[in-house]
């Protein structure tokens, strides 16, 4: 795990983007997702998920890589950990499944850094909080967001049904309507970092 207050960001043009086979979402709607979460909860207990904040730069401003499903919904790359799985290893596995080529020879060098946010889902509902409400003794999900330090050059393979967008921090800031509470508060969580804009 990398802990530093400086995040090196490289231009978006340093990275190569390709495609890979469609990676279907397990759920076609939010209701389906919550129903599946309920089933998994009875089997495994609280869902633990991890997501990566991958930073690049454009016009000397930090941008975050988001996966877009359809033309509306954006999410961070990541997902649910297996029971007992290490958070860092689990995030690397999830990042590879979402963004790495299927060839073992060209796996990105995922350098997972600090956990910058923890969100809690108290009930089987879409709403999440950056704290666990005091009256909730059995939250349904705990989601952790980690900064991922990208190397200067990487190849990302994006599933054909998803788009990978580089979204500037100023676009995310306070934009809950478009990005939801978790993603729209990332600029505040990153404000303690110093961004080192590297122009190779």
UniProtKB/TrEMBL annotation:
Record carries keyword Nucleus: yes
Superkingdom of the source species: Eukaryota
CDD domains cross-referenced by the UniProt entry: NUDIX_Cfim25_Nudt21 (cd18871)
GO biological process: mRNA 3'-end processing; mRNA processing
Family label: Belongs to the Nudix hydrolase family. CPSF5 subfamily.
Record's function text: Component of the cleavage factor Im (CFIm) complex that plays a key role in pre-mRNA 3'-processing. Involved in association with CPSF6 or CPSF7 in pre-MRNA 3'-end poly(A) site cleavage and poly(A) addition. NUDT21/CPSF5 binds to cleavage and polyadenylation RNA substrates. The homodimer mediates simultaneous sequence-specific recognition of two 5'-UGUA-3' elements within the pre-mRNA. Binds to, but does not hydrolyze mono- and di-adenosine nucleotides. May have a role in mRNA export.
Protein name (database record): Pre-mRNA cleavage factor Im 25 kDa subunit
């Amino acid at each position: 795990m990398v802990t530093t207050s400086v995040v090196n960001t490289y231009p978006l043009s340093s990275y190569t983007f390709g495609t890979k086979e469609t990676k279907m979402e397990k759920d076609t709607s939010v209701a389906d997702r919550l129903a599946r979460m309920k089933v998994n909860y009875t089997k495994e207990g609280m869902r633990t998920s991890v997501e990566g904040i991958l930073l690049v730069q454009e016009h000397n401003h930090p941008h975050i890589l988001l996966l877009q499903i359809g033309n509306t919904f954006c999410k961070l790359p990541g997902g649910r950990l297996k029971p007992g799985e290490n958070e860092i290893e689990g995030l690397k596995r999830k990042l590879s499944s979402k963004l790495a080529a299927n060839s073992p020879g060209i796996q990105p060098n995922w350098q997972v850094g600090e956990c910058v946010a923890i969100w809690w889902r108290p009930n089987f509902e879409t709403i999440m909080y950056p704290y666990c409400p005091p009256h909730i003794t059995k939250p349904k999900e705990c989601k952790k967001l980690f900064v991922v330090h990208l190397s200067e050059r990487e190849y990302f393979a994006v599933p054909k049904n998803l788009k990978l967008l580089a979204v500037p921090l100023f676009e995310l800031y306070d934009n809950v309507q478009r990005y939801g509470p978790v993603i729209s508060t990332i600029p505040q969580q990153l404000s303690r970092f110093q961004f080192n804009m590297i122009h190779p």
